[in-house]
Amino acid sequence: NQKQLLKGKKILITAGATKEKLDPVRYFTNRSSGKMGYALAEEANKMGAEVTLISGSDHLPKPFGVNLINISTAEEMFQETMKYFNHADIVIKSAAVADYRPKIISPEKMKKKSGNLVVEMERTKDILLEMGQRKDQQFLVGFAAETNNIEQYAREKLKKKNADMIIANDVTAQGAGFAGDTNIVTMFHKDNSVKELPLLTKHETAKQILTEIVLKLGDD
Ligand code: PMT
Predict the structure, then answer these.
(1) Got a GO cellular component term for this one (predicted)?
(2) CATH code, 52
């Protein structure tokens, strides 16, 4: 019975893109729609989990039965996820978080001038890395959005971030990655096992990811 598989488990899921302001009318963002994370949240709820979804996306309907928290910047994403991290059994980071933000946010709309504009960017916090360092009972799952050397980068992330599983998607492959309703993912585990999924809807991908996590939790 699908309903029972995640009963009693607290799941923290992140979704969508962050937005880093340059001035009151402009920001830096990326192509993540939030669909992958929302599909995970909906399917986890159907499997009986207590779900918190921290989302940078503000245009998708609120998933039924899910505690939805909207954020905008990487810093807000960090603050909100950390509030729920300690009590979570499973954490899945499908959000596309900005790695850099403008060092200075102009309080007024920037006026155009002649010549080029150079914007100095500073690093944001790496939330997955931070979680890997603080991790206790949590089963920590990161995503890797890559365009090349998928397997190598996924394995490096697994180690560096101290994650239990990295879900890699080749965001240049037809039918995979950002914005669409389908994805093609490969799951890399800490124990070196690998599971490749075919092209599936994001909902079906989510179900398979959650089932894989349940299996791994059972192994421990
Ligand atoms: O939202 P959709 O349109 O449905 O698209 C889904 C997706 C392509 C966004 C999703 O499947 C995906 O791959 N998400 C991760 C995107 C990403 O930012 O990957 P990354 O390789 O840059 O980051 C690796 C991991 O570190 C991710 O789990 C990310 O959440 C996390 N991270 C990144 C930067 C940062 N400052 N803090 C983080 O925690």
Answers:
(1) phosphopantothenoylcysteine decarboxylase complex
(2) 3.40.50.10300
Ligand 1, atom 27, residue with closest C-alpha: 143
Domain total of the chain:
1
Give per-residue pLDDT as tens, 15-30: 999 999 999 999 999 9
In a domain, 112, yes or no: no
Q: ipTM of this complex > 0.85? A: yes
220 appears as a binding residue in the annotation: no
Residue in 215, 93, 98, 81 with CA at minimum distance from that of residue 162: 93
Q: How remote is the CA of residue 4 from the centroid of ligand 1, in Å?
A: 28
Q: Which residues participate in catalysis according to the annotation?
A: 30
Q: Is 111 a member of any domain?
A: no
Residue 127 CB–ligand 1 contact under 6 Å: yes
Q: pTM score, two decimals?
A: 0.97
Please answer whether residues 143 and 184 qualify as being in contact, where contact means their C-beta atoms are separated by less than 8 angstroms.
no
Cα separation, 209 vs 11, whole angstroms: 13
Angle at which helices 35-46 and 202-219 pack, to 10 degrees? 60
Range of the domain at 72: 2-106+118-219
91 Cα–ligand 1 center, Å: 13
Residue 113 lies in a domain: no
Q: Which atom of ligand 1 is nearest to the CA of 128?
A: 39
